Structures are given as structure tokens and as C-alpha cells.
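Schema walk-through. Below, the input block comes first and the output block second. Nothing else is stored per chain. Lengths vary across the set, and this one has 204 residues.
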Amino acid sequence: MTIKHAPGDAVRPAPGRALRLRPGTWPGFAAAAWGVLFAVPSFVWASGGTFGAQSTVAPSLMTLAHDRVTWFLAVLWVTGFLKLFGALVGIGLTRRRGKRTGRFLVFCGGGATVLLVWHGCLFVVHGVLVEAGARAVAPDLLGLTRWYLCLWGPWFVAGGLAFAAAAAHYVRRHDARRELRLYGSVGALGALLLSVASAVTGVG
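--- output ---
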């Protein structure tokens, strides 16, 4: 028996087929949004704009951007594209991929987690120490320190947690969980060693 619809009748979608995010995909999309939003200032400053930089970024960096120092502009462009690459990693972690691609995505997710949380925590800890009077900074840098404490530090940590959640969810719904955890751990360890080295040498 065939059911005929009247010409004016609207055909409703089957229950559960409405357009919506799959459960657990939001961390990957959050990481992607974080990467895109964070890339915008890099490209703006690399192009000569200073919007939002004068009060929230270290004066030494502002001077390099204002003077159009070639190597610093190159760093801004590279970091901007790296942030966009991070956005692609976040999107990649929203669904199952091939074996090699999955390994690479989880490796990058683990590395991004440690790098971002490390730098964010450094900013926050430094800001807390300054506010508590345990560490002194020049008076003209006090306002800047608060920006790093209240904006950049939490922003880095939030991005790191988004990548951590996205990578963890990807691993949980994959068959080769043990293997993927290994790749994620290697990425995280590499990022940790890089972060410690940059802190010790003062580079980065």
C-alpha cells in the first residue's frame, strides 16, 4: 500500500536524522575554532596592523613588528599558518581516519596539548607571582603581565585542553587504542622536551 502526500504537505525528516554534530566531535571543532581565531592576530600583525597588540603583547615584540623586521615577520607568518594547521588537526580528529593519518593526528594532538598547556601555565604562574609580590617587574609592564595572566595564559590552556579532549575522544572510539596512545604520548613527550629546552635556553 503506497501512502500519497497531498501537494501542500511537507515531508518531515525521519527522527534522529536532523543535522547536528555527532556526540564527542565538539572538542575537535573547538580546537579548530581556537586555531583559526588565534591565527588572525598573527596575520594581522604580520601585515602591518597593530590592533590589539599595543596593550596585550610585550613591547619588544611590538617594536619588531612596527619596524618590519624581516625575520620577525617571517615568524609571524609561519606561526599563523601553524595555527591554521592546528585547526586542520582539530577537524581531522572529529572522525575516524586511515591508520597512518590517525597516528599523525593523535601525535600532533598530544604535542599541541603539552605545548599550549605548558606556555599557558607559565604565563599564569608568572602573573600570579607578580600579583602576589613574589616577583618584580617594571611598572610599565605590570598591565601587560595582567593581560598574560588573564587573557593569553587561559587562552593557551583552553586550546591545549581542547586538543587533549579531541585526541582522547579519537583514541577511545578507535580499534587500535594502545597504538594510538603510544603515538600521542610520543608527541606529548617531544613537546615537553622542546618546552623545557626553550625554558632553559630562553629561546621561545
